[in-house]
TrEMBL record:
Natural source organism: Rotaria magnacalcarata
Lineage: Eukaryota, Metazoa, Spiralia, Gnathifera, Rotifera
Superkingdom, natural source: Eukaryota
Protein name as annotated: Uncharacterized protein
Length: 124
């Protein structure tokens, strides 16, 4: 049983609050070719994000294929699709809160690594 029953910890709802550079590092550390995935998207012809319902301007961060917001959505979807453990994306206080909700004992003055290990152990 995981930390919460409604979805896995790598779901979009849980990863979207992380900083984009941290998500990118997590994907790169797991050998995900972000550029290959990004380049599957067409380049914008009118400087507007091509995703349905999005009217934001495209971003250089996403090679002018998506806006910055939709690029982050793509990154989060890659974490989910490749079933990557997202623990490094969580702030310490969020990890601690998730563990408390799951009734997992937390040692006093626990480091982030200790919190991550407790989270992984609880999801096994």
């Amino acid at each position: 049983m995981g930390l919460h029953a409604h979805c896995p910890p790598n779901c979009f709802r849980e990863t979207r609050n992380a900083q984009m550079n941290v998500i990118i590092k997590l994907l790169e550390d797991n050998r995900i070719n972000i550029l290959k995935e990004l380049r599957k998207k067409e380049m914008s012809n009118d400087d507007t994000c091509p995703l349905v319902g999005c009217k934001n301007p495209v971003s250089d961060v996403a090679e002018r294929r998506l806006c910055e917001e939709c690029y982050k959505l793509l990154l989060c979807s890659l974490v989910w699709r490749h079933q990557i453990e997202p623990w490094v994306l969580y702030a310490d206080n969020n990890l601690e809160q998730l563990l408390k909700k799951a009734s997992v004992p937390i040692p006093a003055n626990a480091t982030k690594q200790v919190l991550i290990e407790a989270s992984i152990k609880n999801c096994e």
